[in-house]
Amino acid sequence: MNIRTALLSSLALAVALPAFAADPDLTVLDWSGWDIPEVLTGYKEKNGDIPTYSFFADDDEAFQKASSGFRADIGHPCAASVGRYRDADLIEPWDTSKIPEFANIAPRMLNSSIFKDDKGVWFVPTDYAYTAIAYNTKEVPAEDVKSLKVFTDPKYAGRISMPDSTDDVWSLAFLATGVTSWDNVTDEQFKVAADWLRSVHPNVRAYWADPAEMAQLMATGEVLVAWSWNDGVAALQAEEFPVGFERSPAEGVATWFCGYVNFKDGPGKEEKAYDFINSLLAPSSAEGLLNALGYALSNDKAMATVPEDKLKEHFVDPVTTTLLPQTPVSQEFRTKMIEEFEAIKAGF
């Protein structure tokens, strides 16, 4: 099975089977494809089965599901979305005394009062990676991707792809217009970034929904340049497609990280939520997560045991260029980004 059929098959299954029932005492609201045995070894050994999963495709869908009454025990938002769950009073703090590996989580991933305050720890970071420029190395000269200007280059009109994701698209737009942190963005900076996205929109062949779609677009040759997560690129390279990943353009790249929140009044057993987190953060999960999904584990001590060549193979070795972290934003600003992006995609 080649990368096109493998990725498309996994996507089809995720769409056709949005929930996977197993252990009825823990329901996890999670990204499609995260029911991977490589990070569930400890949980399954203790509880005899993996948790019950309900899958989502993006952060907005997950929040809508949770805020509409769907009952899960834990959920897996990315950092920029955590504030929404707190504002909606959907979650409660974790008891980190029950999470032995919590002390080894990279401090940079907890540097927010939205994640951690005097009331407790509201978010346990578990995974991270980078978003940068994927490109067809046979048809796109390396010098063309040394700048984010490649997305506005008329030479690639109709051969560009960007994520159908508020966070990822705006991180690109802000970087391209000289903003390296989206904290305290001014109205003027926002307008400049929005105008840049409008200038790119006519060049876009498709806004990809997940790495499988991005990989398909590049594998078929429809798209030559994409703003992409690392995992789809690594998968394509493993199948010997001529795809590169430029992680040091002049303006910089983005990094994202995700983790788990603890829902109030979940239907399952609270202790199993901790079994799950402890299984995922276990040192043995570091290479398993990397091999299965291409993401790095937030457990710095565990990641230090992974060979450097393995990190480079999956493009999660440290980035030395300017880095825009997709950190939490206010609900007001997030709504503003969502509405503007939807208007741009609609041609307004």
UniProtKB/TrEMBL annotation:
It comes from Gemmobacter aquatilis. Residues 1-21 form the signal peptide. Keywords: Signal. It holds the Pfam family SBP_bac_8. It comes from the Bacteria. PANTHER family: SPERMIDINE/PUTRESCINE-BINDING PERIPLASMIC PROTEIN, SPERMIDINE_PUTRESCINE-BINDING PERIPLASMIC PROTEIN. Gene3D superfamilies: Periplasmic binding protein-like II (3.40.190.10). SUPFAM superfamilies: Periplasmic binding protein-like II (SSF53850). This is Spermidine/putrescine transport system substrate-binding protein.
